[in-house]
């Protein structure tokens, strides 16, 4: 419960800013320690990197989606910016960079212009309280949604029709991520990172983070180009695996903090962007192009 409370940190929403204008709840960093920017949103949920342009990032929180076209240095608002427009999970569909899905607490949205504008949709799911959404990087039609109390659902036609694939995921899963070849990962705060090799039908525990310990998984992100490379955010570090979760390497983020958001560029498995929540209660954005060994927007 302490971790759940930390997910949603109070902050000043900064007033209303029109879509396409600079976000008043984000500011450019001085660049110290490789920091790109700072986010001061009500909470910190998700991020997606465009497969068409790795400089285009989408950041989701419980209040909409912000968009960056310079790799996370500056952010602008989209039309998805209401107080209840939750983007707990996001994912680009296919390699074109146009279609994006976002979902969260009783919300489900789709964009057809790379996340600049969004429309609310009504998917054929038993509920819309979605704790984790992922898209398959090698099949534009495949979308996964973890629906609270109902289970994990998979769509093979771009989110129109859905089939339940599993009811085995624990109730504290907060994030999903999909790699190629039917690989799906889930981040659980009690069981760590869970892995499926059969399109989400069955899951098994990986070697970390430690189930139930201080390194419970807050989020997970798989490489779109290599299903065995993945990252997990924990309360005090970023973890990286190159063998599908069998072993993990701890990576320190400048300034420390809770690593709440992680996204891997489709361009390279080593290109990872994170949002770390530090003592000032802001989300500090960092990027590494060498798998977390060093930080900076090289």
Characterise this structure.
The protein has 298 residues and is mostly beta strands. The protein has a single domain, classed as Methylamine Dehydrogenase, Chain H. It has one helix and 25 strands. A five-stranded antiparallel sheet has the order 1-2-25-24-23, with no helix packed on it. It has a four-stranded antiparallel sheet with strand order 3-4-5-6, with no helix packed on it. A four-stranded antiparallel sheet has the order 7-8-9-10, with no helix packed on it. The chain is globular.
Mean pLDDT: 91
Low-confidence stretches: 1-16
* Percentage of residues in strands: 35-45%
Strand order of the largest sheet: 1-2-25-24-23
**CATH class type:** Mainly Beta
What's the N-to-C terminus distance?
Answer: 38 Å
How many discrete domains? Answer: 1
- Computed CA radius of gyration, to the nearest angstrom: 17 Å
Query: What do we call the CATH topology?
Result: Methylamine Dehydrogenase, Chain H
Proportion of helical residues = under 10%
Q: What's the main sheet like?
A: 5 strands, antiparallel
Helix-strand pattern: HEEEEEEEEEEEEEEEEEEEEEEEEE
Which structural category fits the helices and strands? mainly beta
